[in-house]
C-alpha cells in the first residue's frame, strides 16, 4: 500500500520583498485507500500545502520531509511526482494553450503508465469516463482549461483522476464554484475512485458542503499553517455547526 508521508513541513513564500513562513510544521500521513479532508479558514495555508506537494517554484521548502513509499518527493521534478503516482488538482488550474483535453489525457497516461495506452481501449475508456461525468464529447477537442467554466475545470480534474489512477490524489477546493448538480457529479467521481481502494485522497476544502457527498475517514482542521486538530467524520459536522472561530482566535489563521 502506497503511503504519502508529510513530516514537519515548513514552507515560505516571497511577498512584498519579505520572506513569509506559511506552513509551520505540517504532519500528515495519507495511505492508499484512505480519504482525508483538510478543512480550514481562508488564508490558513491549505493551497500552499497543495502547491508545495506539486513542486511549484514559488514555494520554498525550508524544513521537513515529504515521501511517497519512502521516496523523497521533494527531490522529484513535477513530472517525476506524477509518475510516482501523485496527482494534484489545483484550486486555480492553469490553461494549456494549444493542447486538447484528449491529447493531454493521453500524454499524461503515457507518462504515468510508462507506455502509450492502446488506442482502441483508451478511446473507449475516455468516452465512458466522460459519460459518467456528464461531459459533452466535444469537450475532448477543447484546449485544456481555456475558457472552461468553473464546473468544467472541476469535471476535467475528476476525468483526469479517474483515467490516470494515481496512488495519492490531492484535490484543492474541488467543490468551489460548483452548483449542486455539478457537485454531485464530481463527488460521485471521487467516490468511484475511492471505492477502488487503490487511491488515497486528500480533499482540501473551506466548506463542509462536499462532505455530505464524500464521507472522509479522517478530518483535519488546518489553521495558521498547520494541522491543529484531527478526528473522524464527526469533526466535519462540528465544523459545519460551529465554524472555525474556535481555531482562529488570536489571529492564528493569518
Ligand atoms: P488557503 O488556501 O488556506 O486559503 P493559501 O495557501 O492560499 O491559503 O494562503 C496562505 C497565505 O499565504 C496567505 O496569507 C497568502 O496571501 C499567502 N500566499 C500564498 N501563496 C502566495 C504567493 N504565491 N505569494 C505571496 N503570498 C502567498
Ligand atoms: Mg484561499
Ligand atoms: Mg486555497
Automatic annotation (TrEMBL):
InterPro entries: AAA+_ATPase (IPR003593), ABC_transporter-like_ATP-bd (IPR003439), FeS-cluster_ATPase_SufC (IPR010230), P-loop_NTPase (IPR027417). The keyword ATP-binding applies. It holds the Pfam family ABC_tran. Signal peptide: none annotated. Residues 4-249 form the ABC transporter domain. Belongs to the ABC transporter superfamily. Ycf16 family. This is Fe-S cluster assembly ATPase SufC. It comes from Streptomyces koelreuteriae. The lineage of its organism: Bacteria, Bacillati, Actinomycetota, Actinomycetes, Kitasatosporales.
